[in-house]
Write a structure and sequence with these properties.
six-stranded antiparallel β-sheet; glycosidase; TIM Barrel; single chain
């Protein structure tokens, strides 16, 4: 899961209007709302096949595949030496999910059961079947994420970056996978032709992310050089390989780690964080994915998606290379007072979630009890039942955000993550 950035000193507030009073059940999206003609990106999580039981086949069954241009497979790890690798070790790697797990006919995209000793199985083989059925779909391999960005700084060092990129290309583009744990899967070229490039999810160059991440003062310059190395080695393979990244909403993190004009020359696009703007790590409820910050927002930082987009534009990013991230999950608080329909109220902590406190998939949030409230001007939705407050996006709000994306001339929309959607969110992105 993408994670929050800390609250920093006050930032310039985005232009906003006052929160409308009153409550209303979510309205249907306007059929005339313009939709972006650009990219529609969805993250597929490696671990979603376990507790959530979300398989690649579900991308087809839910109809999501019909509204996606890109799937980002999350995530690959980077080791201390600065190389891509595969492993079966908790918290380190999951080759079993990636390419060893055998699927039944009922679980498979093509309806054919895997055999025990076929060279490629797991999510990778299912993505291969998906791509065979949808040849225009781009599938990128995502590296890092919140949990596995620890050693990105090592990989970006001048003495490591060429070998790092080469190791990632060898494994995930050329498809040379190791045989691990006595399983028959793996071998030279077994995963060739699945992935169309890379998505870099270093969270974050030059500034804190997860506890224990390696951070260096030269990360900013090294990141630029690393991206250029990816671009050079991918281009050497031929035309059509893409390079994207997940990038922060926090203006201070953008300044600390991103040489924007130079980077954007080598990226096909970047996915701008448009969620986790608030969460139960804050004692006060707030909107986690608002486009604009309401004038009465008590958080001095005034986080918003528009603040993030304008930060990237002002730093030199072309609008059509900026893809706005949208949530397929909600952030929740409990013990919330009833004033202002629960908004901007103190809480006693995170609301219960099925997989972890303070967060739940959209397909679960939508069926929780409570009344739905909407701020149409600032583009935010929340649900409040008298004690629990949930901030999330529903299909009507996704449709409205697509109008914002079109008006801003952005390169499309991204959703984290496909396993949280029931199909109706991605349907509004297409």
């Amino acid at each position: 899961m993408k994670r929050p950035f800390p609250v920093l000193a006050a930032l310039a507030a985005a232009t906003a209007l006052l929160l409308p009073t009153g409550a209303a059940v979510a309205a249907e999206p306007d059929a005339d709302d313009p939709k972006s003609g650009g990219r529609s990106v969805g993250y597929f999580t490696q671990w979603g096949v376990y507790d959530r039981g979300f398989l690649v086949k579900d991308i087809v069954d839910s109809g999501q595949v019909n509204n996606l241009t890109h799937i980002n497979y999350a995530f690959g790890n980077v080791n201390e030496q600065g190389r891509c690798f595969e492993a079966n070790q908790a918290g380190v790697g999951d080759a079993w999910a990636d390419y060893q797990r055998r699927y039944t006919a009922a679980e498979s995209v093509d309806g054919v059961a895997d055999t025990y000793d076929q060279p490629l199985a797991g999510n990778f083989n299912q993505l291969k079947e998906l791509k065979a059925a949808h040849p225009d779909l781009k599938i990128l391999f995502s590296l890092g994420g919140w949990t596995w960005s620890k050693y990105f700084s090592n990989a970006a060092l001048p003495e490591n970056r060429e070998a790092f990129v080469s190791s990632c290309i060898d494994m995930f583009i050329k498809g040379n996978l190791p045989k691990i744990g006595g399983e028959p899967q793996g071998g030279d070229g077994v995963a060739a032709g699945i992935f169309d490039g890379f998505d870099l999810d270093w969270e974050w160059p030059g500034s804190p992310g997860n506890d224990g991440n390696v951070i260096r003062p030269e990360d900013k310059q090294n990141y630029t050089a690393l991206v250029a190395e990816f671009r050079e080695q991918l281009d050497a393979l031929g035309d059509g390989y893409e390079l994207s990244a997940f990038v922060p909403a926090d203006p201070e993190k953008v300044e600390a780690g991103f040489e924007v004009p130079q980077l954007m020359e080598n990226f096909d696009f970047v996915n701008v964080q448009g969620y986790d703007l608030a969460g139960a790590w804050d004692p006060t409820t707030n909107h986690q994915a608002q486009i604009h910050s309401p004038a009465d927002n008590p958080n001095p930082a005034k986080w918003s998606s528009d603040l993030a987009i304008q930060t990237w534009k002002n730093a030199g990013a072309p609008a059509d290379k900026l893809v706005l991230g949208l949530p397929a999950f909600g952030r929740g608080w409990t013990g919330v007072g009833s004033a202002n329909n629960g908004l901007y109220q103190t809480s006693t902590g995170p609301a219960p979630g099925k997989y972890e406190p303070g967060i739940d998939d959209y397909k679960l949030v939508k069926d929780k009890p409570g009344q739905v409230f909407r701020d149409e001007e600032n583009m935010a939705v929340w649900k409040y039942d008298g004690t629990q407050f949930w901030s999330y996006d529903d299909p009507a709000m996704i449709a409205k955000k697509m109008s914002y994306i079109a008006e801003q001339g952005l390169g499309g929309a991204m959703i984290w993550s496909l396993d949280g959607d029931d199909g109706t969110l991605v349907a509004e992105m297409g």
